[in-house]
């Protein structure tokens, strides 16, 4: 089987299985699962380097182990503008430090038959952190699970694709879980967004305003307002992926969303430019 190589292993997260496992075990020392009354069907997670947001992503994805082991994990991500063509890897596998994650080619090919996708391969693919940063966690918690990784734009087509993949999975008797990948507000001179100035006050304003608004839209589980808020306020970099995850989660029976954690890169490395991160579980 052809395997797509990693791009960010050894920089954004460890390259070895041993070091990945050590970090994951440290991440899991913090318990975020209290009060979860229903079995989760999906999560929304951040995708910065593990030193900044790995713990939030790891702990959210770990909550999916409370449900039956999925045959396939659908991973929505990628930085896309509203008119972008969706991307998908529909066959092959992607390497992780824990071994390769095989793509569910049955679901992938059926999606390509229904929608206009730009297909990625093991040799021709975008160097995208939004999906790759989640794959070691998925492989660690679900050793034999397959994946369908795709990028969806912030537009109604993201919702159509999400609902279709749930329908196809049901027809094929695939048990699926959903991961949507996004970071929140990218604030500061590095990102050309400085309307609150700099320092602690700016950090607090972004937390209490921009990030709070987009998190509230996510928790309401109404996909299009998430996209509209993100496009209008620049407070989520992959709102298409979030909207798709929410739409798929609802199609899988989720009725509630819970914020598991929130932080920013400022908490780890204070500076004039920083990024927000949230973990959300849908059940």
Task: Tell me about this structure.
With 283 residues, this protein is of the alpha/beta class. The protein is 39% helix and 19% strand. Strands 2, 3, 4, 7, 8, 9, 10, 11 and 12 form a 9-stranded mixed beta sheet that branches. A hairpin with a 6-residue loop joins strand 5 and strand 6 (101-102). Helix 6 (156-171) runs parallel beside helix 9 (239-251). The protein is globular and about 50 Å long. The two termini are 35 Å apart.
Order of helices and strands: EHEHEEEEHEHHEHEEHHHEHE
Number of strands: 12
User: Regions with pLDDT < 50 over 5+ consecutive residues?
Assistant: none
Whole-angstrom Rg: 17 Å
Strand content: 15-25%
Please give the share of residues in helix: 25-40%
Categorize the overall geometry: globular
Quaternary status:
single chain
Distance between the termini: 35 Å
Provide a count of the helices: 10
Q: What's the overall average pLDDT, rounded?
A: 97
Biggest pleated sheet: 9 strands, mixed
**Class from secondary-structure proportions:** alpha/beta
How would you summarize this macromolecular structure in one to three sentences?
This protein is α/β, with parallel strands linked by helices.
Please describe the structure with a list of short key phrases separated by commas or semicolons:
single chain; 283 residues; alpha/beta; nine-stranded mixed β-sheet; three-stranded mixed β-sheet; 10 helices; 39% helix; globular
């Amino acid at each position: 089987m052809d395997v797509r190589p990693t791009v960010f292993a050894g920089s954004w997260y460890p390259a070895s299985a041993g070091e990945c496992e050590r970090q994951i075990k440290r991440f899991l020392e913090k318990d975020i699962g209290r009060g979860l009354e229903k079995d989760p069907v999906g999560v929304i997670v951040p995708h910065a380097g593990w030193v900044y947001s790995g713990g939030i992503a790891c702990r959210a994805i770990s909550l999916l182990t409370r449900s039956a082991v999925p045959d396939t994990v659908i991973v929505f991500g990628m930085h896309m503008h509203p008119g972008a063509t969706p991307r998908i890897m529909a066959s092959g596998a992607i390497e992780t430090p824990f071994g390769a994650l095989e793509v569910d080619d049955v679901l992938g090919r059926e999606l390509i038959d229904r929608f206009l996708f730009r297909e990625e391969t093991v040799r021709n693919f975008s160097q995208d952190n939004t999906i790759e940063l989640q794959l070691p966690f998925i492989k660690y918690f679900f050793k034999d699970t397959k994946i369908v990784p795709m990028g969806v734009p912030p537009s109604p087509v993201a919702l159509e694709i999400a609902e279709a993949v749930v329908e196809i999975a049901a027809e094929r008797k695939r048990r699926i879980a959903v991961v949507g990948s996004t970071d929140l507000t990218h604030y500061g001179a590095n990102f050309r967004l400085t309307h609150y100035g700099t320092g602690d006050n700016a950090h607090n304003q972004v937390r209490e305003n921009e990030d709070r608004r987009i998190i509230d839209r996510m928790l309401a589980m109404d996909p299009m307002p998430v996209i509209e808020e993100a496009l209008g306020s620049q407070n989520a970099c992959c709102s298409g992926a979030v909207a798709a995850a929410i739409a798929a989660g609802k199609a899988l029976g989720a009725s509630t969303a819970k914020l598991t954690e929130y932080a920013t890169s400022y908490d780890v490395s204070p500076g004039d430019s920083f990024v927000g991160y949230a973990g959300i579980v849908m059940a």
